[in-house]
Amino acid sequence: MKIGVQLHPQHTTMDALRQAARGSDAMGVDSIWTWDHFYPLYGDQQGPHFEGWTTLTAFAADTERARLGILVSCNSYRNPDLLTDIARTADHVSGGRVILGIGAGWFEQDYAEYGYEFGSPGQRARALEESLHRIAARKERLNPPPVGDLPIMIGAKGERVMLRLVAQHADLWNTFGPPDDFAAKNAVVDRWCDEVGRDPRAIERTVLIRADEGPGVVQAYAEAGVEHLIVQRGAPFDLVPIGAFLDAAR
Question: pLDDT tens digits, residue range 133-144?
Answer without folding.
Answer: 999 999 999 999
